[in-house]
User: Which sequence fits this backbone?
């Protein structure tokens, strides 16, 4: 339903001279539209976000799909995250929101460290 409307709108806009593709751009590229739904309001914000995260981690959904379901462009979110991370890196800042950093201010555990911790728990049991 939406595709014919946007095609007609672009056709009329180009005929009227209101829409002009940038130099070197294939005019057909104007018809490639990303359809994103409106953002849904959270019913239970914490649980909704945790459920989405679990779906992505469990391989039941992609991060891009979850971002798009909220009405945002995944490529735009990625670009903004990269810019934020580059700026924080340049300033020597580390935030808990940075997925590249260990959570809770602790160092990331290696497999060896986790194995030794498991062995200590077994010995102490």
Assistant:
């Amino acid at each position: 339903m939406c595709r014919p409307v946007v095609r007609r709108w672009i056709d009329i806009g180009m005929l009227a001279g209101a829409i002009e593709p940038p130099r070197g751009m294939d005019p057909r590229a104007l018809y490639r539209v990303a359809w994103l739904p409106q953002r849904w309001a959270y019913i239970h914000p914490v649980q909704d976000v945790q459920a989405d995260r679990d779906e992505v981690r469990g391989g039941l959904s992609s991060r891009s799909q979850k971002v798009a379901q909220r009405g945002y462009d995944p490529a735009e979110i990625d670009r903004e995250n990269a810019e934020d991370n580059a700026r924080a890196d340049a300033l020597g800042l580390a935030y808990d929101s940075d997925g590249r950093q260990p959570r809770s201010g602790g160092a990331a555990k290696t497999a060896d460290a986790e194995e030794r911790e498991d062995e200590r728990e077994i010995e102490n049991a």
